[in-house]
Amino acid sequence: MPERDEDGFFLDRRQFLEALAATCAGLLLGSPSYTAEASSKHPLQYKVNDLVKGMRRQGLILPSERTSWSVYDFTTGTKLVSINESVPRQAASMIKPFVAQAFFFQASHSRKVRYTAEVRRVMERMIQKSSNPSTNRLMDIVSRNGSGRGPRDVEAVLKKYAPGVFQDTRIVEKIPRGGGTYANKASAHDYSRFLYALKHGKLPYSSEIRRIMRLPNHDRIVAKVPSMPDNIRVCDKTGSTARLCGNMGIIEARDRRGRIHAYTMIGIIERRSRAKNYGRWITRRSDAIRKVSNLVYLEMKDRHNLV
């Protein structure tokens, strides 16, 4: 029988064992298997680069806008795309799974920090619904259990327990009224390392974060992507402001023998100033990310004989 916490939330034995294993010495210090840069450029990288250049010519991405792209194939252990991967960019709501991870680091190291039913609901609203008040509330919880420095405690916790993962992460502000958060930053490589560690259970409560990130949401790397089959599964988080459009996640698809193949897909489009027509801008940039995701899936389909 699993242990029940004080608010009635059953603690998953698997989560407890994950947390215990993930806190072992040296586990999160930056294993070369997920921190190393791609050793050589894969043909897919050139295809993505050409596609992005074409979208710039079409006006889907402006010449002044900066982009980052990253794709990692879990089946072969190969980095397929690494374009501007280590450049810190605005994180927007893609920072929210990092906030959740900071809390789980604290929960796995202190008996005073409990993953209660209420915290679970806050975390689900933060990631699935992209609730900004829920994000700020969880930042406050992390800060109360830290040194009282607000959002900076989130960054401090992440870099204390997993410096090899969150190398380019900068968390300095809560999300202001209206959602215009521009100061928090992370690189596509940070997201790639985080997703790698999450997929392999190298972080405390990995299975719980994956569960929450798999809850239905409005993603840009599977939804409305023409080549994607209905049975594909995605674990992701988007980021949207008048200055950034992004999505990072793990995509899982089956081959013709029923085996699952997973890969990361990360796309970020950033501009220096606010878009005058936010609705039009975010829609077109979302479509640009979908075009890249479509190209990547077709490559993975050929590589692994996907359905």
From TrEMBL:
Alphabetical GO biological process terms: beta-lactam antibiotic catabolic process; response to antibiotic
Domain Beta-lactamase class A catalytic, residue spans: 69-257
Lineage: superkingdom: Bacteria
SUPFAM superfamilies registered for this protein in UniProt: beta-lactamase/transpeptidase-like
GO molecular function: beta-lactamase activity
Swiss-Prot/TrEMBL keywords: Hydrolase, Signal
Name of the protein this chain belongs to: beta-lactamase
Species annotation: Thiorhodococcus minor
